[in-house]
Structures are given as C-alpha cells and as structure tokens.
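Trying the structure run again after the queue cleared.
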Amino acid sequence: MKRIVILTLALLLALAVAASAAGVTVEVNGSPIPTVDANGAAAEPFIEDGTTYVPVRAVATALNTAVDWDNATRTVFLGERGEAAPELGENVNVFINGKKFNPTDANGKAVHPVIKDGATYLPVRAIAQAFARRVSWNGASSTVIIEDTARVDADKTYKIVLNGADSVIAPSGDGSGSALVTELFSGDEKQLWRFVPVPGEDGFYQIINAAGGCAMDVNGASRAAGAKILQYNSGDGENQKFMLYALADGAYKIVSKNSVLPIEASAGEVRQNIDRDSPVQSWRLVPGEAVAKEPEAKEYKTLSTKAGAALTYSADSTDLAAERLTGNENQQWELVPNAGGFYYIWTKNGGKSIDVANNSTTDGDPLITYEHSGDDNQRWNFEKQDDGAYKIKSVHSSLYMKVQDGGVVHSADGDEFIIEDVK
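Done. Tokens:
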C-alpha cells in the first residue's frame, strides 16, 4: 500500500498537494527522463521533510548540460569548470560554469545537496534556480515537470505591457531606487527595457532600463510575496536576475531567480507574488523605440497672493521671501507633477525646490528653497478655490503656504495664491 504524504513544492505556487512517496517521475519538456546515476543504476526521486528531491545528473543530462563529480572535494560541476576552486567541507559543493551555487528555500534558508546511494540530489526549487527552468508539480500523476524558459533578443528594446491592457512598466522616478509602476505608454525612453543575458547563467536576464541604465531589482533581495520591484544600480545580485516563462497565448511570466516568484501589477505598482493564474502576472514583450519629441519651452509661473506678494527666491541662499510681483526670473517657478497627483515647485534657476525647513510640522515654521530630494517635505497639493485661486498644502505637514512678515511659512490658515503664466 502506498503511503500518502503531503508534498509542498516551495517553488512557484507553494501548493500543498497529495503525492506518493514512491513512484515520482520527472518529465523534461514533455518527455519522461530516466532517473539514473553515472553507472546507469536507478536514482529515484524521493520526498524528505515535505520537499521533493531529484537526481542532479539525470536532469543535467536531459538538459544537455555537462556534469562531473570530484570526490576529493565532494563537488558537483555543472557546465564548464572555469575558475572553480572548491574546498572540502561538511556539505556537498555545487558549481555552475565555474561559479559556486548556493541554493535556498522559499524563506532564504540554505539548502544542501543530498547524496543517496551514490547519487547527488537537489530540491526541485533549486533545480529552477540552477538551470533557469520552470518546475511544477502534477499531483495526479506524481510528476515533476521541468520546462525550458523563453529566450529574448538582447539587441532589442521592449515595452513590458500588462497582458490585456495598455499599461507598461516604468520607473516612478529617474534615479536608482525608484519604484516600478504601470502607466500608459507615451514613447518615453524610460518605458523601454533591454533583456541582457547574465554571463555564464544561461536563461537568466538582467532587465535594464533603456533610459537610465538601472536594473529591475527585487527590493532588499526579499523572497517575500508582496515585495516591491524597483530599478537599482546594476549589480550581480540574484535579485536582479530573472527568468521568462512563456504562456500559451504568447505572453510571459517574469520570475525572480532569488525568490522564484513572478512579478505582477498591483494597484499601479509592480511587486512579486505567489504564482497564480491571473492576468496581473501576464506580460507581453513588444519591441519598441522611444518617440522623438520636439524640445518644449518650459512654462514658468508666478505665484502671488491677492495682495500682490509674490514668492521670491535667492540664487545664493535658501531664503524664500514674498516681494512685490515683478515677474523677474527669481519669481519664476516650474510646477512639476509627480506620482499621487502632487507637485514639486522648482526654481527657474538654481535647481532648487520649495521645502519645509527641517521637516517641521509646527505651525508658523519657515519654508525655504533647497536642493531637490523628492521627499514629502518638497511635495505640494494645489487646492483650487471657488474664485480660481489656490491654497498650497504641504504633503509633509498638511499645513498651508502663508506669507508672513516678508517671509513664507506653513500654517493652518494659509493664503490663497494666484498662479499666472510668465508673459
């Protein structure tokens, strides 16, 4: 009688399914493979502590990957040895194309190869990380299913389009650390991506933004469902390496090597999550180029109270004053929209933003101009009044801009400002 156990594939779905501890088979690209060791003896997959282990040699052979064993250092070599320098230790080493491979479980804990009856085994999740393959489980037939991942032309730039929608992935800002969001395609270069093969790791890509050169990155190298996806300075971390799983309709899942979780659209943001049959995890890769745009003359504004006191800055200091409206350059401002419907208020010259000094939340404290940081104390909401004027509210303090004693402060009873184009 077969003993029924609960098998957890800590891979993509993290599904608990019933499986037989004996009779587990392995299928590669639709065909069953012989699970044998180097001598042709049977090397059957097995289940231990709820995890399915498969023989490394059998899978490597089926995937046309060279495999070798060094008994002196207890090391498995997959692919080319290259500069591999293994050392004898307590656990079995695995090197892939000369680079040490350190498999982990879904929680980031190290898992180690197991030697059983002379054959070396790895958990199925580690197989996905090692070979850049999609690994799934068919509970009805007790079969581990290993499938090739997709290949992308590294010479092209792509729009990454949410399947069934018009939204594309783009960074929310220009620099490293900007969260990725979904937005309508406008032809901006920052909405385009290149898929750069990871050297020595066939099937894995860095996804590089065409505008800034930053790489798609799982925030903090997290393996948790719900972690944000950012763009970050390009590095060699596992959280910047991704696999592509082709779907039946020609779309793709984009899966982190680090977490073995796919990315998805989540309320306008991009996050990783458990694998599920949902259109929010389905992406089309559409070749695209940035749309050439004619340079536009910036529209500058003056911001003045009804009494004619205009916001005025100094190019040489952080002082923000209120002076008689003249329209001179030190009274000209650029209103720059940002995510969430708020604005930065930039000087025409000097590259500064209106800023709540010292991150204050105290009524009556001064406002200044300061180098642009993008923080909440430089974000402003324009509340239109019935007569067409605006009250200008700080996102940071929830207090309003007010002219006081020739300077500018934030206060609960802010002034109404008239916003006019510079003539």
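The helical segments are 56-62, 124-131. Worth checking whether this holds up in the mutant runs.
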